[in-house]
Every structure is written in structure tokens, then in C-alpha cells.
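Running co-folding for zinc ion.
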Amino acid sequence: MITASAFSSLHDFFSSAAWRVTQSLTLFFVVVFYAATVFWVYKDARRRIEDPWLVMMAVILGIVPPFIGPLVYMLFRPPEYMADVRERELEIKAMETRLARRDLHCPVCRAEVDASFLICPVCTTKLKQSCVNCKAPLEALWQVCPFCETPVDSPSSIALGQRVGSAQIEQSVEDTFDAAAARRRLRSSE
Ligand SMILES: [Zn+2]
Ligand SMILES: [Zn+2]
């Protein structure tokens, strides 16, 4: 008796208007959610993929199979946004130019100097030797002019080495050619 009445009330519920409303509401939400997943795939693919054909393929994958397609897309999508990749590339490029330029300063007065300067224009400290043949500015460590192959005879560095002492010179190549440090050492050895 009780089960029969339960069944009939269940049957009443399923044939009722309330059930029909629930059914269509559920269907509506499923369709909205489905459309949202497809739109999300489209939006995400456009930010990550440059090729419009590949973006279209991703959207098709988002459409069929429903719901599973977007999950598959999530597994195989490029890991980064194109904007992030571009930003990183710009950052690397900026860093490279910064390293290449490596702001040069006069060792005595710290004024900014160009790599081609032979003498500091502010305090007239001799920064570099010029090649005896082609007059190109030479780096302190160069044994030969890279522009005209003329051997570099560096009387100033030899004299410096003799006065300061070769052991100290070997201490630090960079310090040796830092004029300020060399001067300080000369003063202390005298
Ligand atoms: Zn200077
Ligand atoms: Zn030269």
C-alpha cells in the first residue's frame, strides 16, 4: 500500500510542471556552461598561440567533444602567454645591451668615458695608449694592435711593473690596470 502510493507520488512528480522546469533549467545551465568552456578555449588559445589556424583547431577541439575537448586542450596548450614570452625576450635583449655597453668610468675622477677615449677629458688622466701605426685606442692587455697587427710596446706598463714589483702586478690584473690603484700602490711603496 505504502510503496504503491510512493510510486504514484513519484510518478506525479515526474509528470508535473515542476519536473519539466527543473529539466529545462538543468539543460539551460549545461548549455551555458558548454558555451563558456568553448569561449574560454578561444580566449586562452588566442593569448597563447600565434598561428590563427592552430587557434581555430583549438576552438574546434573545445567544441567537440563537449567538456572533454577543453580538458584535452588544457593538457596540450603552450605553457606561456605570448605576451610573457615577448616581455622576457625584451628583458633579455635589454640586459644584453646593458652588458655590452658596461658603462666605463675614468679610474681617477669617475667621469663617464667612451671606450675609444685615450685620455680622460675631465681630469686628463691617460686612459689608453694609441697604436703607433694606426692611432687606434688599445686595451691595456693587448700585445698587438688588432687593427693593423703592429706589436704593442708598452713602456708605461713595463715601468709600472718594475716600480711596483711583479708579484704585486700578478695579484690582480684588473687592479694593475686601474690607474688609481696603481697610484696608491706607488705612493705606499715610496
Ligand atoms: Zn678623469
Ligand atoms: Zn694599429
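Result summary
The radius of gyration is 39 Å.
The first strand starts at residue 129 and ends at 130.
Job closed.
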